[in-house]
Amino acid sequence: MGFIILSAVTFQQSLAQQQKKKPNVLFLFADDQRADALGASGNPYIQTPNLDLLASEGSRFENAYVMGGNHGAVCAASRAMLLSGKSLFHVYDKLKGERTMPMDFAKAGYTTFGTGKWHNEKEAFEASFQQAKNVYLGGMADHYSLAMRDYDENGELGEPTFKGYSTEVFAEGAIEFIEDHVKSGIDKPFFAYVAFTAPHDPYSPEADYINYYPEGSLPLPGNYKPYHPFEFDDLMVRDELLTGWPRKPEVIQMILSDYYALVTHLDTQIGKIIQTLKENDLYDNTIIIYAADNGLAAGSHGLLGKQSLYEHSMNVPMIIKGPGVPKNETFDAMVYLYDLYPTLLELAGLPKPSQVDGKSLASILSGKDSDVRTSLFTAYRHTVRAVRTPEWKLIRYPERDYTQLFNLKNDPLELNNLAENTDYTSTKDELMSALRDWQKISGDTAALTTKVIKQLKYDPDTLTRKPDRWQPEYTLKRYFEGKKN
Amino acid sequence: MNALFQKFLSDGYMSKIETEIYENIQHIIRIIITFWLSQREVLAIKKFTEKGSMVKSIWSVISPYLTESGKQEQAKTIAKYGFLQQQSNNAE
After folding, report:
1. Any idea where the Sulfatase N-terminal domain is (chain A) (predicted)?
2. Domain-embedded: residue B87
């Protein structure tokens, strides 16, 4: 009898220890993925079975946003905000000297690991992660020839080498880390940051995924346009040059086929990482996050890139799964990527960070609150500002003295501009006021109407293009050769 | 798409009909796929905004030209993939 009681007590103690055991964190980060390029978001044309399963075993935030960018490389600002927890006007691309999310996890006794894309200074990476494998320093590159770096004996990122297809090499780095962590027997939780470069262009899928989505088999976006209807910012910013004007339906469909293939391949590699967690009995006690740095136009509104404030470019996928996260829930709260910093700390039971602008979403996940803010602000350079509420969205172009007003409930694709409709004058005024309030609390000093007003009208025939140095033969042949522009 | 139609013909799934009609069918299917999401913004009829309605519409265009074995193959395909799942070109 005594033996039985002793066993029961030991079992209960062990259970209590397990329950108190800090959860691991696996942060999976995609590059340029639209929120709707995901099966779980209701897109029937793309295959993402592993991410869909993750969403069904966790929660998805359908109104997750990047706050914007200071220049064309929106990803740099997005990552800086995510990792510092600060908003766009409180942190710049450079993270040197900033406190980052992995630092807080390290301070709490976690082993921290990073792999994949880092676009926020080498020194900031080294200060943020204890371990590293296959790190790419930069914004983008040919997926087949990314320069990967590992830590050297001094704990610094060494000379780059070329190892294989980006998505697979990053997944291998993450899998190797998880397996080594288990083998080491160290009784510490881990924080692993896996930043993929897919589905960012060049749109050159891994060889087995070429023609995964046959050309012409995917519908154009519902807000496809051959040209953007008016000029703003720089219509020839780098991302817009991947095809000519007018945007031809067959070329946009080609881009979508390659883009979706990149996402599906990414999904497959994520499946392998998750399988590694399961095989090592880590799945249940790991908080898994899947998100992307920003969206992408991919033919919507006559645009290709993310240098606008339309939904397709600012709305991002966001899935959280793990202890403390309800299963199969979709939340419509308006949230920022940089809310993840305080959210993850709270979910892991770590002290609340004092220096961040982000708000913890833990109260939403627990069902205590339905939102953490009543409106959401986005900004791109000094040329575009936007504010949205659950129902409305106003986009302001200060250089053009032009405003768009969309009813997102009735018009989620932002096609019907109601700004000049007098029925909605009060709505427009309220949103303009909210925009000014957001600027004030965010430290955004940009004028909402500039002194010199530029024309909206432009001649699309003046738009010209040429390939950049990152385009491999595959995309050169498909998107550049034989094209007039 | 033409190669796919030629395969349907050689496998005996489609009836032999005039070339012009084949070309028209192919073009109609291309229009359906390409502008499916755009038409939903303009012609928001509930029946045609439901998931799977694009694939159903494509089947409707092809069905009159299917042979008996073609109809059997169609039934098998629908049973296996439904109207939602896209059948990829790759095995994985």
Report:
1. 23-349
2. no
Using a CB-CB distance cutoff of 8 angstroms, which residues of chain B are in contact with residue A219? 33-38, 54
Domain presence at residue B37:
yes
Q: What is the pLDDT of residue A7?
A: 47
pLDDT of A261 higher than 70: yes
Looking at residue B88, its pLDDT comes to 52
From CA A148, how far away is CA A137, in angstroms rounded?
8
Nearest CA in chain A to B26: A216
pLDDT of residue A3: 46
Contacts of B92 in chain A (CB under 8 A): 208, 268
Domain-wise residue ranges, chain A:
23-373, 382-454
Tens-place pLDDT, residues B13-35: 999 889 899 899 999 999 999 99
| pLDDT tens digits, one per residue of A82-95 | 999 999 999 998 89
* Chain B CB within 8 Å of residue A216 CB: yes
User: Nearest 5 degrees, angle CA A342-CA A321-CA A359?
Assistant: 20
CATH class of residue range A382-454: alpha beta
List C-alpha distances in Å: A245 to A240, A304, A462, A481.
10, 11, 10, 15
Residues of chain B found within 8 Å of residue A223, distances taken between Cβ atoms: 38, 41
**Which of A150, A138, A148, A147 lies closest to A180, judged by CA?**
A150
Tell me whether residues B34 and A253 touch, CB distance under 8 A: yes
- B23: domain range? 2-81
Name the domain count of chain B.
1
Range A49-70 average pLDDT: 98
Which of A46, A48, A215, A224 would you mutate first to test chain B, the one with the most B CBs within 10 A? Answer: A224
Q: Is A295:A34 a contact under the CB 8 Å cutoff?
A: yes
CB-based contact, A59 to chain B, within 8 Å: no
CB A212 to CB B90 under 8 A? Answer: yes
CB-CB neighbors (< 8 A) of B89 in chain A: 211-214
Cβ pairs A/B, distance under 8 A? 55
Give A133-191 pLDDT, tens digit per residue: 999 999 888 999 999 999 999 999 999 999 999 999 999 999 999 999 999 999 999 99
Q: Using CA atoms in the order A78, A84, A89, A95, what is the torsion angle rounded to 10 degrees? A: -80
Question: In this structure, how many other beta carbons lie within 10 angstroms of the beta carbon of residue A329?
Answer: 16
**Pairing mode, strands A329-331 and A335-336:** unpaired
What distance in Å separates residue A175's CA from the closest CA in chain B?
Answer: 21
Interchain pair B34, A217: CB under 8 A: no
What is the C-alpha to C-alpha distance for residues A391 and A411, in angstroms, rounded to an integer? Answer: 10
ipTM: 0.84
Domain A23-373 in CATH: superfamily? Alkaline Phosphatase, subunit A (3.40.720.10)
Report residue B66: phi and psi, to 5°: -85, 145
In a domain, B77, yes or no: yes
Residues 335-354 of A with CB under 8 A from B: none
Mean pLDDT computed over every residue of chain A: 94
The residues on B that touch A, with CB distances below 8 Å, are 1, 30, 33-38, 40-41, 51-52, 54, 84-86, 88-90, 92
